[in-house]
Every structure is written in structure tokens, then in C-alpha cells.
């Protein structure tokens, strides 16, 4: 059974596909994802205990 896929892998691929599809439908969604990533990075850089 070397070709099995874990439930986590299925969820990850599904969510990535849904995100890509939604970005095509709603271009600002991509901008929102970038903003969230920037804020998350800034918070982690300024709060080492969160890492």
C-alpha cells in the first residue's frame, strides 16, 4: 500500500485547489492572503515566544 494518501494530504490538496479557484473568481482574495501572510510574519518576528 505504498500509494496511499493520508487524510491530511487530501485536505491540503483540496484546500490549495479551492484557494486557487477562489483567487480566480475573486482576485482580492489573493491580496488578502498576502496581507495575512505579512501580518503573521511581522507578529512572529516581534514575538519570539510565539515561534
From TrEMBL:
Question: Which terms are listed as keywords in the entry?
Answer: Dioxygenase, Iron, Oxidoreductase
Cofactor(s) needed, names only, are: Fe(2+)
Pfam families assigned: HGLS (PF07063)
In alphabetical order, the GO MF annotations are: dioxygenase activity
Name the source's superkingdom. Answer: Bacteria
Cite the EC number: 1.13.11.93
The record's InterPro entries line, in alphabetical order, gives: HGLS (IPR009770)
Give the first-level EC class, as a single word. oxidoreductase
Q: PANTHER family, from UniProt? A: 2-OXOADIPATE DIOXYGENASE_DECARBOXYLASE, PTHR39479
Family to which this protein belongs: Belongs to the 2-oxoadipate dioxygenase/decarboxylase family.
What is this protein's record name?
2-oxoadipate dioxygenase/decarboxylase
What organism is this sequence from?
Enterobacter asburiae
Name of the gene: ydcJ_1
Amino acid at each position: 500500500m505504498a500509494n496511499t494518501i493520508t487524510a491530511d494530504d487530501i485536505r491540503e490538496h483540496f484546500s490549495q485547489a479551492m484557494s486557487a479557484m477562489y483567487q480566480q473568481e475573486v482576485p482580492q482574495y489573493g491580496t488578502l492572503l498576502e496581507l495575512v501572510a505579512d501580518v503573521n510574519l511581522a507578529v512572529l518576528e516581534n514575538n519570539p515566544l510565539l515561534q
